[in-house]
Structure to design on (226 residues):
């Protein structure tokens, strides 16, 4: 089975801290995604990546950056955490371009609280 | 991006069929219809997808209207483990590989 692993299930940080959320997939997927999920707003796409060192902005990239130095790892970075970034963060991966029916595989999520 | 409309919540009894509707009146010819579900405290998981024809797999069936402006996810016999939020999503085959999620339908299943 495909496994997408997020490094932390729960995380508590202080305002202004630099925060790293790590995601690793074990199926050699080319595409990786970061979403955030908030009550009443559903899942919103922050950033995604088609390949190593490539990144694309999603719908809400402000306040975030990403890093993809290796194919299996996609990191979400909050340069200076703020309270409005308190949320559930979900990482996902998929095989790659060309297969238009491809599935996304999600991790279990990281619940980040910024105090 | 084309949008989908789903009811906020639905209820079912165990062992009964469940029909979860989705409207997508602005769907384009290249949009695939995807369904995901999210169990409590988990990330979303893929359920089924289709383009024009009805689809079946071990989890569910997908019925697509002839004009493709709506679709229905069918759970043939609901179980307590099917209680989840179900998302209907359109995926543009020629745009990018990203999926745009809405707020979904929360399905409650009663014993």
């Amino acid at each position: 089975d495909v496994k997408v692993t997020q490094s932390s299930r729960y995380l508590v940080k202080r305002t202004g801290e630099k925060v790293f959320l790590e995601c690793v997939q074990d199926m050699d997927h080319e595409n990786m995604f970061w979403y955030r999920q908030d009550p009443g707003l559903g899942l919103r796409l922050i950033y995604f990546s088609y390949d190593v060192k490539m990144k694309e902005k999603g719908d809400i990239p402000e306040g975030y950056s990403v890093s993809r130095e290796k194919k299996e790892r996609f990191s979400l970075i909050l340069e200076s955490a703020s309270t409005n970034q308190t949320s559930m963060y979900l990482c996902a991966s998929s095989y790659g371009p060309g297969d238009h029916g491809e599935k996304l595989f999600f991790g279990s999520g990281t619940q980040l609280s910024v105090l | 991006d084309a949008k989908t409309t789903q009811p906020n919540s639905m209820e079912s009894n165990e062992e009964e069929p469940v029909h979860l509707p989705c409207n997508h009146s602005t769907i384009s010819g290249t949009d695939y219809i995807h369904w995901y579900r999210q169990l409590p405290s988990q990330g979303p998981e893929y359920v089924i997808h289709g383009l024009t024809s009805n689809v079946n797999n071990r989890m569910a069936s997908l019925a697509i209207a002839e004009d493709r402006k709506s679709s229905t996810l069918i759970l043939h016999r609901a179980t307590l483990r099917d209680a989840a939020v179900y998302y209907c999503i359109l995926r543009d085959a020629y745009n990018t590989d990203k999926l745009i999620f809405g707020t979904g339908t929360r399905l409650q299943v009663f014993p």
